[in-house]
Amino acid sequence: MNLMSETWHWVVIVITAVNILACWWLIRWSSAQGDSSKGDNDTLDHVWDENLQERNQPLPRWWLILFYGTIIWGFGYLIAYPGMGNFAGTLGWSQEGQWQAEVDAVDDIYAEKYARLAALDWDDLVASDEAMLTASRLFAANCTTCHGSDGGGAVGFPSLRDSEWNWGSDYDSIQATIVNGRIGVMPPWGPALGGDQGVAEMVQYVLSLSGSDHDPAMAAKGQAKWTMCLACHGPDGKGNQALGAPDLTNNIWQYGGSEADLAHSIAIGRNGEMPAHKDLLSAEKIKLLSAYVGSLGDSDGS
Ligand code: HEC
Ligand code: HEC
Q1: pLDDT for the residue 57
Q2: How high is the pLDDT of residue 9?
Q3: Is 203 a pocket residue for ligand 1 (Cβ < 6 Å)?
Q4: Cβ pair 130, 288 in contact under 8 A
Q5: Of 58, 107, 142, 289, which residue is least crowded by CB atoms under 10 Å?
Q6: 205 lines ligand 1 (CB under 6 A)
C-alpha cells in the first residue's frame, strides 16, 4: 500500500477532524435557534407577498438525534476502518486486502484445473481443447491490448500468428519470452550511415533482401555498408534470435515495410519491449499461454 507522507498524514487527519467538529457545532448552533416557548408565533422579520412569513422553529428532536448518531457512527467508522491519514483502522481492512482475498478464492477454485493442465507436455497441451479454450481467455485478458484480439499484432507489436519469431519459436523460448519479457535493441544508424542519403541507400538494400521493389544502384551502395548490420542481422539478413534481431528477408515487418518506416527503423532505431509476466501470471498460466501462442503461429514444437 502506498503511504502518504507524514505531512499529508496530518493534513488529512486535521481536515477530517475539523469537518466532524464543524458538523457538531452546526447542529448545536441550529438547535439553539428559535424560542419554543413562543410556539407558532416566533417568526422572523421578513414578510413576502403581504402575509407570507418565515417561522423560527427549533429542529425536530428525532432529526437532531439522527444527526448526532451519524457523527458518533463516523467516529466509530474512522476507528475501525482506514480514513485518518495513514492510520490503518483496528479491523485491518484494506482495498488491496479485499481484492487479494477475492483473487485467492478464485485461484483456489481453479488451482486443481491449472495444475492438471500444466502437467501435460507441450503436444498434449496444444491438443487439449480445454487447455486451449482456457488459454485463449487468458490471452484475451492479458495480451490483446498489445497483440490484438486474434494475436495478429499492430505496428510496433509483433503478430504472433505469422512465421516470424524474433526470439525463438519453440515452446520453451516462447515461455521464456513471456516469463522474463524481451527488449529489442536496434541502435540508431543515421549518423554512422552518413545521414539521409546513406539511410535511403540502406533502405533500398533492405528492400532487396525480401525481393521487394527497389533501386538496384542505391541498394548496391547500401550493401557496401552491411558490415554495420551484420553482427545482429547476420551476413544474409536472416537475423539472430539470441539478440531478437529480426529476419529482414521475409517481408514481415514489426514496424512497417514502407520506405519511410524502414528509414525510421534504420536512422532512429527501435526498442520494442515485451513486458515480463512472471509477477503477473502464475507459472501454470504462462505454460498454457506459451502452448496457445505457439499454436497460433508456426511453432517449431518443443
Ligand atoms: C545491435 C544489434 C543490431 C544492429 C547492429 C542492427 N540491428 Fe536492426 N534490429 C535489431 C533488433 C534487436 C531489432 C528489433 C527491434 C525491436 O524489436 O524493437 C532490429 C530491427 C530492425 C529493423 C526493423 C524490422 C521490422 O520488422 O520492422 C530494420 C529495418 C533493421 N533493424 C535494419 C537494420 C540495419 C539496416 C542495420 C545496419 C545499418 C541494423 N538493423 C543494425 C538489432 C540490430
Ligand atoms: C504492453 C504491451 C504488451 C503486452 C501486454 C504483451 N506483449 Fe508480448 N510483446 C510486446 C512487444 C512490444 C513485443 C516485441 C518485443 C520486441 O520488439 O522484440 C512482444 C513480443 C512478444 C513475443 C515474442 C514474439 C517473437 O517474435 O518472438 C511473444 C511470444 C509475446 N510477446 C507474447 C505475449 C503474451 C502471451 C502476452 C500476454 C501474456 C503478451 N505478449 C503481452 C508487447 C506486449
Answers
A1: 76
A2: 93
A3: no
A4: no
A5: 107
A6: no
Contact of 126 with 271, CB cutoff 8 Å: no
Residue with CA closest to ligand 1 atom 8: 186
Residue nearest atom 40 of ligand 2, based on CA coordinates: 143
Q: 269 C-alpha to center of ligand 2: Å?
A: 18
* Ligand 1 contact via 228 beta carbon (within 6 Å): yes
C-alpha cell at 153: 499484432
For the stretch 187-237, pLDDT in tens is: 999 999 999 999 999 999 999 999 999 999 999 999 999 999 999 999 999
Q: Which residue of 164, 186, 274 sits with most ligand 1 atoms within 8 Å of its CB, as the best mutation to test the pocket? A: 186
Portion of the chain with pLDDT greater than 90, in percent? 80
> Whose alpha carbon is nearest atom 10 of ligand 2?
274
Closest CA to 164 of 43, 296, 69: 296
Query: Is the pLDDT reported for residue 34 higher than 80?
Result: no
To test the pocket of ligand 2, the residue of 147, 180, 270, 279 to mutate (highest count of ligand atoms within 8 Å of its CB) is 147
Q: Which residues contact 64 (CB under 8 A, 6 or more apart)?
A: 27, 31
pLDDT at 44: 79
Query: Between vectors from CA 32 to CA 28 and to CA 37, what angle results, nearest 5°?
Result: 150
Handedness of CA 231, 237, 241, 246 (dihedral sign): positive
pLDDT beyond 70 at 36: no
Contact (Cβ atoms closer than 8 angstroms) between residue 206 and residue 253:
no
Q: How would you class 182 by CB atoms within 10 Å of its CB: exposed for 0-12, middle for 13-18, buried for 19 or more?
A: middle
